[in-house]
Amino acid sequence: MSGWLKIVGLGPGSEAMVTPEVTAALQEATDVVGYVPYVNRVAPRAGLVRHGSDNREEIRRAEQALQLALEGHRVVVVSSGDPGVFAMAAAVFEALEAGDAQWRALDIQVLPGISAMLAASASVGAPLGHDFCCINLSDNLKPWALIEKRLRLAAEADFAMAFYNPRSKARPAGFERTLDVLREACGPDRLIIFARAVSTPEESIRVTTLGEATPDMADMRTLVIVGSQHTRLIERDGAPLVYTPRSAD
To answer: Which of 9, 75, 97, 175 lies 20 to 30 angstroms, CA to CA, from 58?
Structure first.
């Protein structure tokens, strides 16, 4: 079987954060499949077909990619950040498990990328320097009650927390409720970081506290990090640094 499928991460935005391994895969590809803004990050060239689709068509997109590979194409499925973090890798495997038995014989690889979570953390220091968890605040694929349960348990366990998809026009109330839950569980002085469009020209980083945070500080391009009780802020000239010590009481 001559076709193959590689599921890759394009990093958070900067071309400098695309790994050499992913760059090589894109150079070998005959087809690139993904959400339109991510497909558009791949430069057109002779011999490459770009297949862009809407944000909520993950399974159909995965099925298309698997079928193209079965037909002998060299297919790259693109995600931003890392493909295994709230992105296309899981969708491809969902489609693989439920779909054509022939797809299981394909050469399928997942190539990691730099996640928005790690890029955001690095932009301010090391707030994820000790134990942490990562939660997707979108309730499109899971009920809000489950999100709130996980927020409370993560706060009780004193994890630093990284939040994807905090607030959109379609669900403006969810992040307001998230802040309320965290203030109740962690108190108003807990550090919170709003890292928007990290590694792009539109990058904006804001470090504040839960007591001062407001819902409009986040949108869908924002990665939000909430520290643990041990997370510290180092004041200095210019932007402060935030880190969580490697040890805990």
So the answer is: 175
Q: Strand, helix or coil at 177? A: helix
Structure tokens at 58: 């993950």
Residue 193 β-bridge partners: 207, 225
Prediction pTM value:
0.94
How far, in Å, CA of 211 to CA of 207, rounded?
A: 12
- Single-letter amino acid code for the residue at 56: R
- Measure the CA–CA gap between 56 and 242, rounded to whole angstroms: 35
The residue among 160, 217, 210 whose CA lies nearest residue 188 is 210
| Residue 129, beta-bridge partner list | none
Distance in angstroms (rounded) separating the CA atoms of residues 184 and 249: 22
How far is the C-alpha of 210 from the C-alpha of 187, rounded, in Å?
A: 7
Instruction: Find where tokens 């986040």 sit.
Output: 218
Calculate ∠ Cα 11-15-21, nearest 5°: 65
* pLDDT tens by residue, 121-175: 999 999 999 999 999 999 989 999 999 999 999 999 999 999 999 998 778 788 9
Number of C-alpha atoms within 13 angstroms, CB side, residue 62?
Answer: 24
Q: Spell out the alpha helix ranges (H) of the chain.
A: 20-28, 36-39, 58-70, 88-98, 116-124, 144-156, 173-186
9 bridge partner residues: 79
Question: How many CB atoms within 10 Å of residue 153?
Answer: 12
Rounded to whole angstroms, how far apart are CA atoms 35 and 169? 19
DSSP letter assigned to residue 235: -
